[in-house]
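Troubleshooting log. The previous structure file for this entry was overwritten by mistake, so regenerating from the original sequence record. Sequence copied from the archived sheet and checked twice against the printout by T.R.
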Amino acid sequence: MINTSKKRGFTIVESLVAITILVLAVTGATSGIQTGISSYIYSKDQIIAFYLAQEGFEQIRNIRDVNGLKSQNWLTGISSNSSDPCYFGNVCIVSPVESVSPIRCNGGAGSCPVLRQNASSGFFGYNSLWPTTIFKREITLSQVNANEVSITVTVDWSKGITNRQFKAKANILNWQQ
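Regenerated output below.
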């Protein structure tokens, strides 16, 4: 009996093509996963920046409301010189847990220190015992008229060499009038 079937294996070309397809599939999946993780991290940081900005607005509103309840000038503790409501500066708002008074940004715009975060409670503030974060928050106040102040909250952070910024603006009114 004559054996007419020939045993054949893959040629080197077929093997190289198969390996190339496999490498491309793995590279594509890895790239997709890396992009997804980067997007997740950016989104997480952007949400934190949004909430830090919101907290800044709420702190200014809280100071205004406490002033109203104490029958004080509505800008006491907010403006750099409460006897001159037209003079405003940049402030760094501390966590409500630490204090209700703003910290002045000595040196002008961009001089607020990096925020710190309590690992157990999650609160942000300037407590030197807490580890630093990547976020800086600055609140700039400007007079619109005698009974209205514009608040601009800027939260800056960076990841690697990329600098990011979230900026929000709102106005508050003197409800004491």
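Confidence is low (pLDDT under 50) at residues 81-90, 94-100. Archived copy saved in two places this time.
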